[in-house]
Amino acid sequence: xxxxxxxxxxxxxxxxxxxxxxxxxxxxxxxxxxxxxxxxxxxxxxxxxxxxxxxxxxxxxxxxxxxxxxxxxxxxxxxxxxxxxxxxxxxxxxxxxxxxxxxxxxxxxxxxxxxxxxxxxxxxxxxxxxxxxxxxxxxxxxxxxxxxxxxxxxxxxxxxxxxxxxxxxxxxxxxxxxxxxxxxxxxxxxxxxxxxxxxxxxxxxxxxxxxxxxxxxxxxxxxxxxxxxxxxxxxxxxxxxxxxxxxxxxxxxxxxxxxxxxxxxxxxxxxxxxxxxxxxxxxxxxxxxxxxxxxxxxxxxxxxxxxxxxxxxxxxxxxxxxxxxxxxxxxxxxxxxxxxxxxxxxxxxxxxxxxxxxxxxxxxxxxxxxxxxxxxxxxxxxxxxxxxxxxxxxxxxxxxxxxxxxxxxxxxxxxxxxxxxxxxxxxxxxxxxxxxxxxxxxxxxxx
Length: 447
Ligand SMILES: Cc1ncc(COP(=O)(O)O)c(C=O)c1O
Description:
The longest helix has 25 residues, at 422-446. Helix 2 (51-63) runs antiparallel to helix 11 (309-324) and helix 4 packs across helix 10 (286-294). This protein has two domains: 10-49 and 326-446, Aspartate Aminotransferase, domain 1 (Alpha-Beta Complex), CATH 3.90.1150.10; 52-324, 3-Layer(aba) Sandwich (Aspartate Aminotransferase, domain 2), CATH 3.40.640. The two termini are 41 Å apart. The strands form four sheets. It has a six-stranded mixed beta sheet with strand order 4-11-10-9-8-5, sandwiched between helices. Strands 12-13-15-14 form a four-stranded antiparallel beta sheet. The protein contains 15 helices and 15 strands. 38% of the residues lie in helices and 15% in strands. By secondary structure, the protein is an alpha/beta fold. Pyridoxal-5'-phosphate binds at residues 41, 100-102, 105, 134-137, 207, 211-212, 241, 243-244, 269.
């Protein structure tokens, strides 16, 4: 089979054909094995070909594969919503399902709109977001996303722009130093609210640990307490985008739990089905939802396949797997091990300027060797060089570039499946070290 009928973006021109997946490995048609060191885009969290999930989907297929959301509910759908609410804890009890993280962001925006409309404050329509960030590929979610490369081609359509900076202490946009800064980047949110007028702002959307746009930047612990206080002071809803971080990735079921801040709305996707099908959604505080419905406003929006029985069953099965194998606790432990193994590379690979992250969501940033950690030029594209070398050597890592100013900033995300063993982690780190070394040697040759 050729690629001639497939719209092939540039980066896929030389793509290998995947034919099989097992555990942390993906195999191509020549039998070459690749360690899936990023779980795809932080999605195949339980690895490839997980037997327990496969069997449960097969069983569901024998019962019924599809029902329409406005006509039926099903056992997997209800069990999934119950399981998700239990995992989120507190008052986060109401769940609405869709197919992708982008749709989940859209659902969250619609929920904010419906809520403030019900509360008699329809003018609270603005949403604040941050550079660098990523909340989805649809026009509205891209408008919220602080990701220059992904925005560029669509800028005439985009309706908004992010306004806050992320808390990346290593390269603080405000050129301040933690902790003397007093978490200025969080406090700045209040200034912004006052300038825009709190009566116009409905919500702020935040990835608790950065994903594709800034490779696992972790905020200082106090960050979310400040953001939450400002939200409460000005009646602004807090949306935690947990499309990547949800369901164990950072060593807690949701990342907001490790920062002890209760969001009003949580978005999720990716890992909830561990790659077995398109499944995503939002979790909403019950109190907020009830206040809205008491005013007679329903939230009936949805998508044809949202929460269909097959993917809902996959989601139930993922939640059962996580509980049965105490996987989230293991992510924390494995994450700490992997972090110290990657961090140790800094000594021999001067080109690594920062290793960051939480749980099994690690970011490795690269810069010119030296005390100033000057970023590589755009033309060098060190990120691509590392990703390509890793691929050549049998390891998949996820690229993240342009987080400093939209152009500069090179990094990759290492986020293997939760089932990775100690030996497999050692192998991953060895291949990564070799690949970074080779990528750097190549640019030295350029002179
Ligand atoms: C934090 C975050 N939110 C939303 C999305 C959009 O999800 P999807 O690609 O499933 O539409 C992504 C995708 O990478 C993401 O990382």
